[in-house]
Amino acid sequence: MVEIEEVGNAFESEELAQLNCTTRRLYTILHKSLHDLQTTSITADNKSVEPRLQHDKVRRETDSLLDVVSKNEKCQQRIEHRREDANMLMESGILLYNVSRSLLKSYESMEKDANSEDKYLLIMTRFTATKVMAFSLLAESDRKENLSISYIDDCIDVLRSLGRVGLLSLQNIYTDASKSSEYLLLACDTLAHSSNIWSKIGLSYLTKVKHNTELEEILEDLWDFSRSHMEVLTIMISTTDDNVKLSININSLTNVLHELQELCPYVPAYTADLLKAIKTTVIEFEKAGKLKYCISLIEESIRISDSIEVGHENATDPSADEFKQFLMLRLFEELFEQKDYQRAETCYSFLPNRKDPSALLVMLKLCLSQKQYQRAKNITGAIIEQNNFEKALLATKTIVQAEEYSADSLMMYDTLRRQYGGNCLDVDFEEMCDLMKANQIPDSAAFQKRVLGLNKRLQDSESDTSAHLNRLHRCVFELTHDELKRNSLEICRTWAEVGLNLAFNQDEAACYMRQFEDYELSLPRLMCKLAVLSRILSQSFSKGGSTKEGVYWAKEASKTDHSKKSLFLLFGTSLVGDSCDSQNLSAESLQDILKRDDVDVNDMIALCKLAYDSKSVDTCYKLSGCICEKLSSEGTNIGPMVLPVGALLQSVAQMLVQRSMDANRTIIEDQSLHLMEQFVNCSRKFTSENAASFGSSEVFEWFYALSFRLAKKTNSFDCYLIAATIAERCSELYPTTSKLQSRSICCKMAAICIYVQKLESLDRPSLQKLSDLIELLLEANAVSVDTSLSIDRAYLGKCALAVKLRLGEEDTSQLLQMCKAKFGGSTLELTEAAELVLYTSSFAEVSEIRDKYLALARDIYKHALQILLQQEKADGRKLGIIFRRIVQLAETRQIVFEWLEQFLQVSQSIDVEVEDIDAEWLLAKSWNLVRI
């Protein structure tokens, strides 16, 4: 193996020296890997582990080398280098190219598949080497300008190296799926560079300096490279999404076409290959839906086809006309698809064979699009005369459908029947299917006989007519549905009976059995068809007011088909009936539906809508509970609803309110309360993003009004809480449009007042609920509360204290801190709190902690005294009351004496007038203390 010498210092150009140095480092890495691989293959066993490439180092050096080349290519116009520098760089590139090729061949010679990453890095390195070689050519300004023979030889060598790397990359696109996109980009880049070098040489100059076998070999390589380039561009355009911007355009492809066209005169066999390649590319673009590229390619291909010089012996060869017919027909079709009718018609006039049935069929569609019906009929007649039954039948069906199955257009089937007598059954079948789609069907009874007769002919046919039979019966079903939609109930029932006769036919069942070769497979198809017709009959009778017959056919449908459709229909028809049997049937069918695993929330909403339309209040109420339960189990990821759930619950609640006038009001109120709770629970599964699936803000306002009225009527703590929750949920789901902002505060305050009024009779759970609600209001952010509302925090603090005392709170230090926090600035409120503690201590329930409560009251009075004395002018009346309570609650005579002395000092030190009654009481207390 050749070693690269240390010649970096010989370069005059820093750019080329840097390139050469990087190339040399990469070469050294690969050369060492090749040496290790060859050594291992000689000395190691067959099962030894083969050495791997140093991926990170190779990739880093390769990327670095490509960056340097790209940077120098951008400024190549202002760089001139010595020829010796360029030659040395060329040699380095050649050595790198050869070592990467040898390393890959060594893998293959050892009959071991190269690792996918190894193989890609080696091919990438070869590409990098060719870039270095190509840049060394650009760096030679003197030889490049003179286009010397040696320079042309070097260009061809580099061109071939690039082309071979491109061919290798193209091959790996199909063999290495994990790297197909990387290989595709590499092949496109490599072959584009090869094409760029070729364009600078030119075919005319090449033929002057190269001759005979050498020229043929060069032209053959050029052809292979350009064909591969065309294939790569086709793949890139066909597989790339239209929204992704491509680095290439149609001009890249047309340039390659022109390169191939230039080579055709030198090798006549290339002409047929070029035409075949163009056809393949056009077809690929059509499959991929690349209309823009397809039209541009076809137009350019037509120009190329016209300019290709065909030899004298091939002048009468029809292949050129066939190719032009193919291109022009494709262009005609694409222009029609784009609704460019004027250009499409012009294109049709240039077709070599305008009587081609495919071309006439497109022209027929063009005429129909422009409502040129007479011309379309003439074209249809021309297609029928072409002895191509499939195209003729398709043309007839197209014009009949375009003219909306008019009687005049349907007469085209007579012409078709006369021209193709051997295909009468197919013609009759298509005509019958189109007749059933006509706006006005001929004599119904006679026509139905024709349908049954055609059904018999299809069954008796020796050929496989199962597809025709299925389509005929589908047409009968569709006709029945159409009549049902038009409310033509009698005609609907008649056609449904025809469909039943067809479905009950044993020959048809045998036909299904022959088709599927298994009775168990054919039977469900037959049963499904019977169920569809039974459902149609049920709907027809129900719409006509014959409820009993509607229920009967709904039962028949559910017997043969246990699908949701049949059960839904049975449920809906049984709701209409007033008899006890109908009510039992609706309840049973509802249970059967709810047991199914495939019933979702939307299905339940549809059922509830049916019950609502039938004024079945109990069923609506039951289904609303099922809907809420289903929503609760589905989590928060809720999709769109066929009907807003909140609006549906509102409708059910309105039905309950209306029925309350005639039924037991207590039961209705309980049901309404339960429904409101369900409404609140369901709303928690929705957010502001999908709130529309639940309902509008007006639904919340309606439920709020209902709950508030019920709360006032029943004086219910729970009702007020539900009203508060409804207001809060409305504000959360509709923050900008809600009219219930801060209404929850009013409802919660009302609920607190209700429980406080009967505080002494509340059980422990009710007291705990009240305590939690008070704490919630006390912690409410004042900013979030409407300025028109005010929370009486002092009142709430007293309520909180009263509730905790009723609950027997033993942590008196916490209670003292709460009093200081809630009433710290008000002597009056502190005094009232202490009085409340004293009052509570007299209850038998707190007898075990009475001493703690008395001490708590004394501590509260002491704190109240501190606050009072801090004021600028103390209130004598309050001062006397507080001292009386402190003295009264003193534990020992010594403490009583101390507090009396404290009172005497206070009364002498500040200007305060104590009430006579308080002063007399304190005087009596001190006298009694002295006497004792």
Task: Lay out the secondary structure.
Blueprint: H1 14-43, H2 55-74, H3 83-109, H4 116-138, H5 141-146, H6 149-175, H7 180-201, H8 203-209, H9 212-239, H10 250-263, H11 269-288, H12 291-307, H13 319-337, H14 341-349, H15 357-369, H16 373-384, H17 389-402, H18 407-410, H19 412-419, H20 424-435, H21 444-460, H22 466-485, H23 489-504, H24 506-516, H25 519-543, H26 547-560, H27 564-576, H28 580-594, H29 601-613, H30 617-633, H31 645-659, H32 665-683, H33 697-714, H34 717-733, H35 743-757, H36 764-778, H37 793-806, H38 812-823, H39 827-841, H40 850-869, H41 876-888, H42 893-909, H43 916-931
Protein name: Protein ZIP4 homolog
> What's the gyration radius in Å?
48 Å
Which regions have little confidence, pLDDT < 50, spanning 5+ residues? Answer: 1-9, 43-51, 309-316, 506-526
Percentage of helical residues? over 70%
Number of beta-strand segments: 0
Largest sheet: none
> What is the CA-CA span between the terminal residues?
126 Å
Taken from the alpha-carbon principal axes, the silhouette is flat
Protein name: Protein ZIP4 homolog
Organism: Albugo candida
Task: Describe this protein's structure.
It comes from Albugo candida. This is Protein ZIP4 homolog. It is a single chain. With 932 residues, the protein is mainly α. The protein has a domain at 872-932. The chain is built from 43 helices and no strands. The chain is flat, with a radius of gyration of 48 Å. The relative contact order is 0.02. The model is unreliable at 1-9, 43-51, 309-316 and 506-526 (pLDDT under 50).
